[in-house]
Design goal:
Length: 75
């Protein structure tokens, strides 16, 4: 499957993953941040919490909070 986003550079790294500046392949003018977490390195409870956080962030709609446009899992 083709990637939807092209990574430009790494912004930071933490215990479970990293954040990257990226642009959608379809619109290189728009910039996004990808937060990539390694679920395989997490306990079952931590992985569940990470998935719930992603769902919560997608549901937020507030002018002062950055919008989460999508979440998902890759292999």
């Amino acid at each position: 499957m083709a990637e939807r986003y092209k990574r430009i550079k790494e912004l930071g790294r933490g215990g479970f993953g990293a954040a990257y500046l990226a642009s959608p392949v379809a619109d290189k003018r728009q910039l996004v941040v990808i937060k990539e977490v390694r679920v395989k390195d997490m306990s079952s409870a931590e992985a569940t919490a990470a998935r719930k956080e992603a769902e919560f962030l997608e549901a937020l709609d507030h002018a002062n909070i950055t919008k989460c446009v999508s979440s998902g899992e890759t292999i």
